[in-house]
Amino acid sequence: AQSVTQLGSHVSVSEGALVLLRCNYSSSVPPYLFWYVQYPNQGLQLLLKYTTGATLVKGINGFEAEFKKSETSFHLTKPSAHMSDAAEYFCAVSADSSYKLIFGSGTRLLVRP
Amino acid sequence: EAGVVQSPRYKIIEKKQPVAFWCNPISGHNTLYWYLQNLGQGPELLIRYENEEAVDDSQLPKDRFSAERLKGVDSTLKIQPAELGDSAVYLCASSRDRDTDTQYFGPGTRLTVL
Questions:
Q1: Between residues B100 and A99, which one has the greater pLDDT?
Q2: Predicted confidence band at B101 (pLDDT cuts at 50, 70, 90)?
Q3: Which of A32, A99, A103 sits opposite B43 (nearest CB)?
Q4: Facing residues of B112 across strands?
């Protein structure tokens, strides 16, 4: 069975600082990995995804993530935080023929002025 | 291209009442998903449709929940009767087909059961 662990339910950074949101997954087969962002009272929006190929994946809004098989990780980073990045971020894995997404519990990013 | 549309956005009902949620997926998307999102948690899949066929409903509490997608386009999720613990956000998502991994989510329906 697949699972996702997001370390830190809340992460606070200063505007302009590095953003690092951690995600570790468990899967017995090569996974597909996703990061979604959710703004208040809105649905989830795809930031980026990894399927195969290059392990460093670039997404929207300046975010990127690196798939590290040896560490079973898929951490999300952004070099410089903006106030508009404040939201809830969800990591998800899809690793079987059903393509069902298994989500982590989310990390709320707070950006301080 | 219009996104996934859900209605209503908010619903408040008393326990034991019925409630229904509607979802219209992105045009041309054959696969439709209903997710439940409890406060402070990630979404959990309730049911997945491929066209009009429910291909994964293992997480749907069938004693009170039902869903349909009669013409393989829009879908309705129903709860009857609602319980206090059903208070949550119900999200609908769609993808072109199950081999296309990107799921596009609607804004959700926030249900409050009093």
A1: A99
A2: low
A3: A103
A4: B12
